[in-house]
Task: inverse folding
């Protein structure tokens, strides 16, 4: 299951739920790629505090509730 | 400019020219015929979808142009707004996710083979809609819900009433039967809940699904199941029939498909849904003042998004009026047949599985499959659906055995 931990941030895509709709990639094209009908965290993607809003949007927009994001403050 | 699209009184078998005129001349415009703002271009429909959660409501029903919101317990899925919608959807996604639906693949393949065996046993002609597509859809829903085989026909019949009722929203012709159906469903839900959580059918799963200690009540479960059948039964059957019809009307594409069924089935399905998908359009109401492509909408304004027009938009798809089964969908924007955003069709994975197994088995096993010359192909009435109600076909026996690959 794709997971990215960086600077205390934690971003995951649950492949049991993801159905490849691509909304995550539409909203955050630098962070997600869609391959084989699933979303993956883009190679070399970085998550910083500045991405928090964007990732909250992705989390709320995923029609299959497959994206989870915990910013560093929630994650310590 | 007034839209030309008049689906209540002048629904066309081939609406593409008319929809092209509206998309080009008035992509967002008030239609007196619909008494709604008709939204016809890909960009405009996408903008509606983007703005759905904030600016529009489905609570007046997406299938009928109602004057009043639906009763609370009937506000489910597309007809529910967040946060109610979010909660329902959360409880439902697990059962309908791609990985979960893959468990149904052996059932799905077996069902297609059984139905083809039954067709072959009766001769060399059949109605694709009645003898195959509807039974495929009904069978999958029955399996998912754990409805006993003997009751599945009746389920299908009741769901078809609802499809007819979208053609004339004022008609009460089927109201009593539809009310009976709902009452029956509530009974079924009660019975499943008291039987306990051990069965793995969807009704039981919904009865016992918990999210933060929160459970759905029985009326809500019944309404969700009913809505799922409404949204998923005739549409999936229509997706199969419409795709086969399109393939049969494009012999060079059909020849290409027959030469490599395995490789081309996924892109054939996408193209079938784009070219002639089951949803012609859906209703919504503006909830908060907004604009669509600059057109101002006020709270209470009714809109009708014409997905079929958006799916033929040259801004989104090259050569949109051509049926091309080998488009590279990885490089294309998504077609609108499943919608997108928070209301993205939750049955998509199931629908795709059904279409894939049924269409590929059909063309693998029935040699010389073709339309029966001269047979009429009635189109379902009304503005909401595209569905050939019968599609008479014939083939050249002997059929290939079940499991042929
Ligand atoms: S939005 Fe959700 S379902 Fe769609 S591709 Fe991204 S993770 Fe998967």
Result:
């Amino acid at each position: 299951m794709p997971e990215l931990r960086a600077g205390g941030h934690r971003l995951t895509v649950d492949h049991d739920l993801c159905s490849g709709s691509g909304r995550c990639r539409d909203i955050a094209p630098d962070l997600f790629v869609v391959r084989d009908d699933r979303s993956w965290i883009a190679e070399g993607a970085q998550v910083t505090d500045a991405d928090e809003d964007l990732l909250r949007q992705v989390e709320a927009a995923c029609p299959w509730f497959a994206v989870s994001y915990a910013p560093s403050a929630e994650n310590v | 400019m007034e839209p030309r699209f008049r689906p209540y009184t002048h629904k066309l078998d081939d609406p593409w020219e008319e929809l092209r005129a509206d998309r080009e001349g008035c992509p967002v415009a008030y239609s007196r015929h619909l008494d709604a703002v008709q939204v016809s271009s890909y960009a405009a429909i996408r903008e509606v979808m983007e703005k759905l959660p904030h600016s529009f409501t489905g609570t007046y029903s997406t299938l009928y142009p109602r004057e009043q919101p639906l009763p609370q317990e009937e506000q489910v899925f597309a007809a529910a707004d967040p946060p109610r919608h979010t909660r329902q959807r959360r409880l439902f996604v697990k059962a309908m996710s791609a990985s979960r639906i893959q468990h149904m693949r052996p059932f799905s393949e077996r069902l297609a083979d059984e139905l083809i065996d039954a067709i072959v046993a009766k001769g060399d002609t059949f109605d694709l809609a009645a003898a195959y597509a509807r039974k495929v859809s009904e069978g999958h829903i029955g399996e998912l819900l754990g409805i006993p085989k003997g009751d599945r026909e009746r389920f299908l019949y009741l769901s078809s009433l609802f499809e007819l009722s979208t053609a004339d929203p004022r008609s009460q012709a089927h109201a009593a039967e539809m009310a009976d159906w709902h009452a029956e469903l509530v009974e079924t839900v009660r019975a499943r809940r008291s039987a306990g959580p051990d069965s793995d059918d969807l009704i039981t799963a919904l009865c016992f699904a918990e999210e933060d200690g929160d459970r759905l009540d029985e009326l809500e479960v019944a309404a969700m199941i009913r809505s799922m059948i409404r949204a998923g039964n005739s549409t999936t059957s229509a997706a199969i029939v419409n795709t086969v019809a399109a393939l049969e009307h494009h012999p060079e594409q059909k020849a290409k498909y027959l030469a490599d069924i395995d490789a081309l089935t996924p892109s054939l399905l996408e193209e079938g849904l784009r070219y002639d998908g089951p949803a012609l359009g859906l209703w919504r109401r503006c909830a908060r003042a907004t604009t669509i492509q600059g057109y101002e909408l006020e709270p209470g304004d009714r809109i009708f998004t014409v997905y079929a027009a958006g799916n033929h938009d040259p801004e989104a798809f090259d050569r949109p009026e051509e049926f091309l089964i080998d488009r590279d969908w990885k490089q294309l924007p998504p077609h609108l047949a499943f919608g997108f955003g928070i209301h993205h069709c939750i049955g998509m994975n199931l629908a795709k599985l059904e279409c894939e197994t049924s269409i590929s088995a059909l063309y693998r096993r029935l040699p010389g499959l073709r339309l029966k010359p001269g047979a009429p192909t009635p189109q379902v009435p009304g503005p909401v659906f595209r569905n050939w109600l019968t599609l008479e076909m014939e083939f050249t026996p002997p059929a290939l055995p079940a499991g042929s690959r």
Notes: The mean pLDDT of chain B is 91. Residues 239 and 297 of chain B are 32 Å apart (CA to CA). The pocket of iron/sulfur cluster is lined by residues A 13, 18-24, 34, 39, 62-64, 66-67 (CB under 6 Å). The domain at 16-394 of chain B is CATH 1.10.630.10 (Cytochrome p450).
